[in-house]
Specification:
The protein has about 80 residues and is α+β, with helices and mostly antiparallel strands. Helix content is about 25%, strand content about 10%. It has 2 helices and 2 strands. It has helices at about 45-50, 60-75; strands at about 5-10, 10-15. The protein has a two-stranded antiparallel sheet with strand order 1-2. The longest helix is centred in the last third of the chain and has 12 residues, at about 60-75. The termini are far apart.
Length: about 80
């Protein structure tokens, strides 16, 4: 199975890339519309990633984080 994204408008489907074959049976799934409340409209995920990359300035001690997570997970294990 191959997934290709597209746009449905007025009974027509326009694919965002070339289909992998000339003719095939297809299944069309219409995703539910998501609420836009609280979302930043107009910025792509890449733009947001670039904007916020590096905004955390603390050093992360991976070993200490892992040990802390294990201690928390197994604290009440008897």
């Amino acid at each position: 199975m191959v997934a290709v994204q597209g746009l449905y408008e007025n009974g027509r489907i326009e694919l965002s890339e070339d289909a992998p074959m000339k003719k095939a049976n297809v299944i069309v799934i219409f995703p539910e519309e998501q609420a836009t409340e609280g979302l930043i409209i107009g910025k792509s995920a890449k733009e947001l990633f670039e904007e916020f990359t590096g905004c955390i300035s603390r050093e992360i001690d991976e070993k200490a984080e892992r040990i802390g997570a294990l201690d928390e997970k197994y604290a009440n294990f008897d």
